[in-house]
Specification:
- The protein is α/β, with parallel strands linked by helices and 486 residues long.
- The chain contains 11 helices and 23 strands.
- A hairpin with a 2-residue loop joins strand 21 (434-438) and strand 22 (441-446).
- Helix 2 packs parallel to helix 9 (393-415).
- Residues 59-400 form the FAD/NAD(P)-binding domain.
- One of its GO terms (molecular function) is flavin adenine dinucleotide binding.
Length: 486
C-alpha cells in the first residue's frame, strides 16, 4: 500500500520485456466440502483448501492481506507455479525456467475487507462519489481471482476475516471469519500452511482511509464524508502537511473548486518528516498554492471551539473556531485530521519477529529473522516490514514478486530431486523516493534524476485516476492476458 502516492514503475528490472499473451486453462469445480462448515461459505472456503491438499497434495500458502503486496505475492506465485512468466517480473523466461514443472499450490488470501481497495486513491475517493465507486473492487468481481482464470495447479481463494494468531513452529494460523465477534474463540478456524506471507499493512484512521470492511458500507461512508465537506460554507481545514494532507487538500479543491480549503502545517516545510531534499518540499508547496488551496505554515493547532451559526444551514450543524498556538484563529465547518501515526497490523505475529514499533524484521530475502522457528518459510512484504525507504505501493508490489519467486524456489527444491539450492532474490536498500499528486500536476523525487514536476509527471506516475489503472494493469487484475483496466 502506499500513502504517500508513489510508484515503483520508473525502476523496473532491466530484464522486463513486453509480455506476449498466452492461453490460461480453466479450473475444474472443487471437490465436495466435508460437512463441518459452521460459518457458511467462509469456512467452506477454508475446508476446500484442506480437502484439496489431502487429495492432490498441493503446497498450502497463506497470504495475510489482499492489497498491493499480498495480491502481488499471490498472483506472481500463481504465475510461477503455472509455468508462466511472473506478471511483475522479467517477461522473458530462460530455457531452465521453461523446463521447470508446474507446481500444485493452494493460495489462500485473508483480508478484513471484502475487496481490493485502491488505497492511494483515498484522497479522491473521499472527494468524489464517482471515483469512490471505482476505487473498491470486490474480490469476487476481480477477474484475476476468479476460478476460471486460474491454472488447475495454482488456485487462489479469498476469505474475509482477520488473522488472530500465528504459530510459526506448527505452521498454523487462527482466523476469525468476518461477522463473528473477536472474543468468540469458538468461531475461529485453524488453517495449516506450508508458507506464510504477512502483507496486512498498516492500520490507518479515518479519513486517511475509510474504515468500512464491505464495499456497500464504504460507499455510504465516503458519501457521508463528501456531503459533509460539500456543505462547509466556512470551508474545510486539513491539518497536517505530509503527503496525505497535501493530497487530500488538493483533491478536495480540484473536485469542488468553490470550496474554501486551507492546509495547516506546524513546520516551516511541507513533507517535514520525509528524508527528501528541500527542493522537492518547496515544489510541493508551490504546486499546492497553484491549486488555490490556502496554506498556513508554522501554525500548530491548539484547540477547536464550537460555534453556532446565526441562521439555519442545511448541514444542521454549527461551525468551528480554530485556535493556534501563535494566537491566530480561523473559522471552518469541517476539520480533516491528516497527522495520525499509522500502526503496523502485526499483533498476530510473535513479538520476537517484530521491532519496537511492531514492524516485521526481515532479511533481504524477505524471510523472518533467522532466530524465528521455520524462518525460511515465513515472509513479510509491504508497509509492515522494517526496511529502508518511504512506504509506497510500488515497493509493496515489488516485494510481493520477490517473495513469490523465493517461495517458488523452495517449492522446486522439494519437488525436483536435483534442483539446486533456492536462488533467492534479495531486496536492496531502498533510497528515499516519492511521487506526489497535487491537483492536476505532480512532483516527484528520484535519486538518479532529482526533483521533477508538472502535468507530464502526473501522467507518468498516476495517469488520470490517481494510479488506479496503473496498479490494476501492473497486477493484471483484469486477467493475465488482459491489461486494460475494467
Amino acid at each position: 500500500m502506499c500513502l504517500p502516492l508513489c510508484s515503483w514503475f520508473g525502476r523496473k528490472d532491466k530484464q522486463q520485456q513486453q509480455q506476449q499473451p498466452e492461453e490460461v486453462d480453466p479450473v475444474p469445480v472443487p471437490a465436495a466440502v466435508p460437512e463441518k462448515a459452521k460459518m457458511g461459505s467462509i469456512v467452506e472456503d477454508i475446508e476446500i483448501a484442506v480437502a484439496s491438499h489431502a487429495t492432490n497434495t498441493p503446497f498450502k500458502v497463506l497470504v495475510i492481506g489482499g492489497s498491493y503486496g499480498g495480491l502481488s505475492t499471490a498472483l506472481n506465485l500463481q504465475d510461477l507455479c503455472s509455468g508462466r512468466a511472473p506478471r511483475c517480473g522479467p517477461q522473458t523466461q530462460t530455457e531452465e525456467q521453461r523446463s521447470q514443472p508446474n507446481v500444485a499450490v493452494d493460495i489462500t488470501v485473508v483480508d478484513e475487507r471484502d475487496g481490493f481497495y485502491h488505497l492511494i486513491g483515498s484522497p479522491l475517493a473521499l472527494a468524489s462519489e464517482g471515483y469512490a465507486e471505482k476505487a473498491w473492487a470486490k474480490f469476487d468481481e476481480v477477474p484475476a481471482l476468479q476460478p476460471q482464470t486460474c491454472s488447475p495447479d495454482a488456485k487462489i481463494r479469498t476469505i474475509q476475516g482477520s488473522v488472530r494468531s500465528v504459530d510459526l513452529a506448527s505452521k498454523t494460523a487462527a482466523i476469525q471469519p468476518h461477522g463473528t465477534l473477536a472474543e468468540d474463540v469458538a468461531e475461529r478456524v485453524e488453517i495449516k500452511y506450508d508458507y506464510l506471507v504477512a502483507a496486512s499493512g498498516l492500520r490507518r484512521v479515518f479519513p486517511v482511509v475509510p474504515q468500512s470492511l464491505r464495499r456497500k458500507q464504504y460507499l455510504f461512508e465516503a458519501g457521508d464524508h463528501i456531503r459533509s465537506v460539500t456543505n462547509a460554507r466556512h470551508g474545510v481545514a486539513v491539518v497536517g502537511g505530509g503527503a496525505v494532507g497535501i493530497e487530500m487538500a488538493a483533491e478536495l479543491k480540484l473536485v469542488q473548486p468553490q470550496l474554501k480549503v486551507t492546509l495547516v502545517h506546524s513546520r516551516d516545510k511541507l513533507l517535514s518528516s520525509e528524508p527528501l531534499p528541500d527542493e522537492t518540499k518547496d515544489k510541493a508547496l508551490e504546486l499546492l498554492r497553484e491549486t488555490e488551496v490556502d496554506v498556513l505554515m508554522e501554525h500548530r493547532l491548539d484547540r477547536t471551539e464550537d460555534m453556532k451559526d446565526d441562521d439555519h444551514h442545511p448541514s444542521g450543524k454549527g461551525h468551528l473556531k480554530l485556535h493556534f498556538t501563535n494566537g491566530h484563529t480561523m473559522l471552518a465547518d469541517h476539520v480533516v485530521w491528516a497527522i495520525s501515526k499509522s500502526v503496523p497490523t502485526t499483533s498476530y505475529l510473535p513479538t520476537e519477529t517484530l521491532d519496537e514499533e511492531g514492524y516485521v524484521k526481515i532479511q533481504p530475502s524477505l524471510t523472518f529473522p533467522e532466530h524465528a522457528p521455520n524462518s525460511g518459510d515465513h515472509f513479510a512484504v509491504g508497509d509492515l516490514v522494517h526496511w529502508s525507504g518511504i512506504k509506497r505501493c510500488g515497493a509493496a508490489m515489488h516485494m510481493g514478486y520477490y517473495a513469490a519467486n523465493n517461495i517458488h524456489q523452495r517449492m522446486l527444491q522439494k519437488v525436483v530431486p536435483d534442483h539446486q539450492k533456492p536462488a533467492d532474490l534479495e531486496l536492496a536498500e531502498i533510497p528515499p523516493m516519492i511521487g506526489l499528486a497535487v491537483g492536476k500536476k505532480a512532483v516527484s523525487y528520484w535519486p538518479q534524476s532529482g526533483t521533477a514536476s508538472g502535468e507530464d509527471v502526473m501522467k507518468a506516475f498516476f495517469g488520470d485516476d490517481l494510479g488506479f489503472t496503473i496498479c490494476w494493469n501492473h497486477l493484471r487484475l483484469g486477467g493475465y492476458d488482459v491489461k486494460a483496466a475494467a
